[in-house]
């Protein structure tokens, strides 16, 4: 594949003028967008919920009376009760932490891994590229869900960190390819060549010139994928390899509730929270990309 | 055969004329039954112990005896009589004359003896092999094999305890007296195979030749529905009214349920996730069975922390069985180790099964408390495993003040760990009888080395009482002895009874399933409206 | 060209070995005894277990089991599953199901994705573009699990527009609903990618040059903009098709489609290393094939790419 991408990228050089924004310019551009501000506030809310759930509810999510199983809302219990008869509002609030952690850590981790490997593979063709690309090929050609199911069935205790780890393992090759292709298009630009010719060390070139100019597509892809991570967590519960109790998470609430369609409040609330968080991430991702990518501003 | 053929032709032409029904053949009396399982790969009752396979085989094969759905008494089907000797050790089985297989061959005692001998050979690896372990000579066909070794071949091909007397009579000699043996003969896994199948079973995996009321209506290839047509050569009692049956395999039970609601099925079992809604989803189209079977929390006998019976009683009394049964749905709390539809069932057999938090805490304190978290294992392969585990866990945590953790694993891994005595903590187990006797609950689960001794429980006193019951020819007295065994087991409490479930099924307007308080709900014997 | 293809195929062999060995090792390392799961509701006697073990070589060391499996795969002698199903039969039945589902889903995804993406790319910031972006956001935010269950319940059970499940109504009726849902969920990403790509290409210098040379709008569109804008999208195709195989596990389970995904899931549950490796090999081969085709497609879209 490398020869193909090389030609493609050679032509992609003509695109763009290589202008980059400084961080301050970027922030100013972003803050001018009302949707960015709004979504950031929403996300801050979710992060606060994940970090300090006690601020949002005084109820104990693990105090349950089976007799109240699946009852609707009542005084002091705005979301009603779950299958176990626990206060559902408290459960949804406490469920934010694993869901936020899984989606953020997995997405950020995939971004870092894919970015780094893509950068290396794209900038150093030859042995490094070969090793990275062939490894990716191996991971690519096994269906990801299969690896997930097999590994999660094998581990003695499924914690969020193991789920994040497995997502990282199967998630990076896709982003790596994208990054690698973008790096191909950037590495022969004038400013990179210029930096090279005056003897700037490769690490600095990568960090200062190549990465900022090549990260936009990967960033867009990552933010679009964050929502999928929470959905994936729900799918794992459906397949019997999700987080196990007493962990509380939106994904497993949702996965369990999918079977109890007759009590819609059980899946409406986590679904609403998942979707709000997802959309916020994606709008933020869109805004960042628009701001970063000068071509789209013309 | 000529008569049968002519009859079906007439029926077929009738169906053609009326043209009202979309079904094939004489469609008016055809039913489509959903089976929520992966498609079967073969039909062979002797190599089948799961409910999907037995359910299909039940239409095509007939047992020796069965339970009369109306009276609950034993009813001869292929047998004319089943008689024990004085000690209940040797049993004589006489077949009803005139029965044949679907290939026209007469059904003889030789067919039974040879089919059973074939199954009893360990090298055949058929699933109902274990049934024959009660018969004299079983060990010669199934030599002890150390774990991991390849089984040694043996030249012995027949059970010494099986003897053909004449064409229609054979005798079974058991290793030890067993008064319930006659009841066990209703297990469909003992159905006979005709000679041509016995010679080359693999060639007939998809071409079963039975002796029951239905036969294959069309070639059955991998992935097909199983289409059955009435076989007119069946001379036994309890002839189903349906003239054609289609079994459709839908592995996801929720999907099968949806298919029914969309009007594509005549009969479906209600999955556990729908027990709260099926009455609204399909008003006037549902039936429920009497509660049957038994469900338990299993205590690991190998874990010293659970050794003290007071700890077990404390756990038992910390469980609100009513609320738990409501959560499971269609269930009633269980306070006995045997199913409520058995002769000899006592509703309040258990003294430590009432929900009493104070007493539970007191018992726990008397036992010196519990160290470390109680781990609850649940099967990730069952839809409700996690939900049930959490419910029990919440009650133990809140009512006893113990720490609780959960482990979700595949069902087979839990069993394997338990068999190796390495499983940490409680797990769920359940049992349904193969033949209606409380003995079929007590022996498998509580006898030392019983087939289904989930807890690895052993108490010589209980074994002795069971042996006495097995040797007791008078049914009433035998039941009394078995009840003593149940009392011993309840005091030691290796299994904590939790609930008994009934099953719900949905049926189309066209049929009314047979509902019997003795044998449950059956679509096969449905009547047509 | 032929040498290029050969080179690619040869390069795939070591990867194939690593993939199959890795998958087999993963399944081998999974806890749980496969035959116990098979036993069904009742315990099975030790003699029967031992006989089954010998039949499926379960007592042999890992590498021997792996080599035996690979030998079976390479000689086309697939044998039976633990439950007694003829594997060759299963493949004959299941491959068409998965293929039909994947193809139909891709048809929907690509039709919607390209049409909306191209339209929105040209009319950027128009109301269609804005509503499209919003729609894709909503679609991307819906977890797949919800979409499948909801679609089955609403369109299958309540409205009866589509069959609820199964493949009894044949192609394409039985496959329409699941493929539509997969297609709609997948189209969101594709449409966005296409839109961005069009925007970038329309503003590219070579397009301006072409216009400046006085070429007609149609010619600019078909000869300059579309082929170039399609390039990143075609890469996406390769990744996406490879992913469909894994994603089909959930779809096939909910819609009761007897395809390879369900087979794979069953095999994993039963720890049938041989079947899992066979299916992984199939997935691997189709992955290699699809990517080869994608690269050849590149050559057609962009004449500067030469495969020598």
Automatic annotation (TrEMBL), chain A:
Residues 100-285 form the ABC transmembrane type-1 domain. Belongs to the binding-protein-dependent transport system permease family. It is a multi-pass membrane protein. Gene3D superfamilies: MetI-like. PROSITE patterns: ABC_TM1. The keyword Transmembrane helix applies. It is found in: Cell membrane. This is ABC transporter permease. One of its GO terms (biological process) is transmembrane transport. Keywords: Cell membrane, Membrane, Transmembrane, Transmembrane helix, Transport. The chain crosses the membrane at residues 36-56, 100-124, 136-154, 160-179, 214-241, 267-288. SUPFAM superfamilies: MetI-like. GO terms for cellular component: plasma membrane.
TrEMBL record, chain C:
The keyword Protein biosynthesis does not apply. It is found in: Cell membrane. The chain crosses the membrane at residues 9-30, 101-120, 132-155, 175-193, 229-255, 275-301. It comes from the Bacteria. GO terms for biological process: transmembrane transport. GO terms for cellular component: plasma membrane. Pfam families: BPD_transp_1, BPD_transp_1_N. The keyword Membrane applies. Keywords: Cell membrane, Membrane, Transmembrane, Transmembrane helix, Transport. Residues 95-294 form the ABC transmembrane type-1 domain. InterPro entries: BPD_transp_1_N, MetI-like, MetI-like_sf. It is a multi-pass membrane protein. Gene3D superfamilies: MetI-like. Belongs to the binding-protein-dependent transport system permease family. This is ABC transporter permease.
């Amino acid at each position: 594949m490398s020869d193909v991408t090389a030609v493609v990228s050679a032509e992609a050089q003509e695109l763009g003028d290589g202008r980059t924004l400084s961080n301050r310019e970027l922030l100013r551009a972003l803050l001018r967008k009302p949707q960015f501000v709004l979504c950031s506030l929403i996300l801050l809310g979710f992060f606060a919920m994940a970090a300090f759930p006690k601020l949002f509810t005084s109820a104990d999510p693990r105090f349950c009376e089976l007799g109240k199983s699946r009852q609707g809302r009542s005084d002091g219990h705005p979301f009603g009760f779950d299958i176990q008869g626990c206060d559902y509002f408290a459960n949804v609030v406490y469920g934010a932490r694993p869901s936020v952690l899984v989606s953020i850590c997995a997405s950020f981790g995939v971004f870092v891994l894919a970015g780094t490997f893509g950068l290396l593979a794209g900038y150093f063709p030859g042995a490094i590229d070969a090793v990275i690309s062939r490894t990716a090929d191996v991971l690519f050609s096994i269906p990801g869900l299969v690896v997930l199911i097999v590994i999660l069935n094998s581990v003695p205790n499924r914690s969020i960190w193991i789920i994040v780890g497995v997502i990282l393992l199967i998630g990076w090759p896709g982003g790596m390819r994208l990054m690698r292709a973008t790096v191909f298009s950037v590495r022969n630009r004038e400013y990179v060549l210029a930096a090279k010719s005056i003897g700037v060390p490769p690490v600095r070139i990568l960090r200062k010139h190549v990465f900022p100019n090549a990260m936009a597509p990967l960033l867009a892809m990552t933010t679009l994928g964050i929502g999928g991570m929470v959905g994936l967590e729900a799918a794992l519960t459906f397949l019997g390899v999700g987080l196990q109790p007493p962990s509380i998470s939106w994904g497993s609430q949702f996965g369990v509730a999918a079977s109890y369609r007759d009590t819609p409040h059980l899946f409406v609330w986590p679904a609403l929270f998942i979707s709000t968080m997802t959309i916020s991430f994606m709008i933020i991702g869109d805004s960042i990309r628009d701001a970063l990518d000068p071509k789209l501003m013309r | 055969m000529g008569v049968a053929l002519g009859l079906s032709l007439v029926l077929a032409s009738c169906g053609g004329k009326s043209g009202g029904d979309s079904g094939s053949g004489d469609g008016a009396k055809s039913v489509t039954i959903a089976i929520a399982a992966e498609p079967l790969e073969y039909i062979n009752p002797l190599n089948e112990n799961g409910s999907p396979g037995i359910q299909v085989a039940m239409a095509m094969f007939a047992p020796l005896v069965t339970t009369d759905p109306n009276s609950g008494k034993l009813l001869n089907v292929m047998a004319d009589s089943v008689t024990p000797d004085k000690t209940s050790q040797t049993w004589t089985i006489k077949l009803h004359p005139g029965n044949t297989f679907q290939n026209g061959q007469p059904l003889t005692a030789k067919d039974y003896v040879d089919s059973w001998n074939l199954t009893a050979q360990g090298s055949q690896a058929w699933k109902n092999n274990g049934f024959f372990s009660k018969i004299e000579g079983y060990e010669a066909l199934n030599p002890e094999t150390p774990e991991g070794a390849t089984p040694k071949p043996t030249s012995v091909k027949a059970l010494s305890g099986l003897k053909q007397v004449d064409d229609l009579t054979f005798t079974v000699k058991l290793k030890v007296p067993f008064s319930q043996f006659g009841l066990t003969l209703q297990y469909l896994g003992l159905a006979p195979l005709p000679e041509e199948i016995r010679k080359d079973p693999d060639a007939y995996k998809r071409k079963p030749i039975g002796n029951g009321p239905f036969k294959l209506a069309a070639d059955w290839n991998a992935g097909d529905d199983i289409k059955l047509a009435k076989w007119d050569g069946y001379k036994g009692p309890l002839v189903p009214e349906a003239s054609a049956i289609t079994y459709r395999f839908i592995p996801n039970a929720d999907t099968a349920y949806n298919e029914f609601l969309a009007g594509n099925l005549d009969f479906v079992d209600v999955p556990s996730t729908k027990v709260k809604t099926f009455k609204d989803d399909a008003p006037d189209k549902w039936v429920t069975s009497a509660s049957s079977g038994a469900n338990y929390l299993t205590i690991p006998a190998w874990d010293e922390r659970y050794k003290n019976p007071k700890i077990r009683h404390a756990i038992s009394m910390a469980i609100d069985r009513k609320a738990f049964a409501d959560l499971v749905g269609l269930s009633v709390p269980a306070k006995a180790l045997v199913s409520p539809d058995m002769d000899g069932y006592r509703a309040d057999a258990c003294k430590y099964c009432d929900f009493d938090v104070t007493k539970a805490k007191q018992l726990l304190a008397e036992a010196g408390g519990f160290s470390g978290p109680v781990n609850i294992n649940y099967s990730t392969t069952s839809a409700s495993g996690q939900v049930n585990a959490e419910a029990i866990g919440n009650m133990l945590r809140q009512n006893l003040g113990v720490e609780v953790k959960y482990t979700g694993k595949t069902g087979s891994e839990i069993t394997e760990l338990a068999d190796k005595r390495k499983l940490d903590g409680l797990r769920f187990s359940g049992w349904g009888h193969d033949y209606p006797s409380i003995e079929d609950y007590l022996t498998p689960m509580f006898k030392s080395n019983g087939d289904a001794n989930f807890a690895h429980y052993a108490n010589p006193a209980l074994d002795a009482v069971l042996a006495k019951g097995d040797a007791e020819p008078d049914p009433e007295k035998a039941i009394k002895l078995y009840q003593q065994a149940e009392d011993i087991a309840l005091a030691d409490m290796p299994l904590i009874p939790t609930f008994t479930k009934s099953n719900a099924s949905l049926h189309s307007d066209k049929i009314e399933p047979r509902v019997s308080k003795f044998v449950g709900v059956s679509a096969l014997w449905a009547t047509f409206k | 060209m032929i040498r290029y293809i050969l080179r690619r195929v040869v390069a795939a062999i070591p990867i194939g070995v690593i993939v199959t060995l890795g998958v087999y090792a993963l399944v081998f390392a999974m806890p749980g005894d496969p035959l116990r799961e098979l036993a069904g509701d009742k315990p099975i006697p030790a003699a029967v277990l031992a006989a089954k073990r010998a039949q499926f070589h379960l007592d042999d060391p890992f590498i021997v089991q792996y080599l035996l499996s690979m030998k079976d795969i390479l000689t086309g002698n697939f044998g039976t599953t633990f439950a007694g199903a003829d594997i060759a039969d299963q493949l004959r039945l299941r491959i068409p199901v998965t293929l039909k589902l994947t193809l139909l889903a891709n048809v929907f995804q690509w039709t919607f994705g390209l049409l909306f993406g191209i339209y929105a790319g040209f009319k950027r910031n128009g109301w269609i573009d804005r509503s499209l972006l919003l729609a894709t956001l909503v679609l991307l935010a819906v977890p797949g699990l919800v979409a499948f269950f909801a679609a089955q319940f609403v369109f299958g059970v309540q409205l009866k527009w589509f069959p609820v499940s199964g493949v009894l109504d044949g192609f394409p009726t039985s496959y329409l609903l699941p493929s539509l849902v997969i297609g709609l969920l997948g189209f969101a990403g594709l449409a966005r990618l296409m839109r961005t790509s069009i925007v970038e290409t329309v503003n590219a210098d070579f397009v301006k040059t072409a216009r400046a040379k006085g070429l007609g709008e149609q010619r600019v569109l078909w000869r300059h903009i579309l082929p170039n804008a399609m390039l990143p999208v075609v890469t996406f195709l390769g990744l996406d098709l490879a992913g469909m195989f894994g994603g089909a596990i959930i779809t096939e389970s909910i819609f009761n489609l007897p395809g390879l995904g369900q087979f794979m899931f069953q095999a994993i549950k039963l720890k049938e290393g041989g079947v899992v490796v066979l299916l992984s090999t199939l997935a691997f081969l189709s992955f290699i094939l699809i990517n080869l085709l994608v690269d050849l497609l590149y050559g057609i879209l962009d004449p500067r790419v030469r495969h020598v």
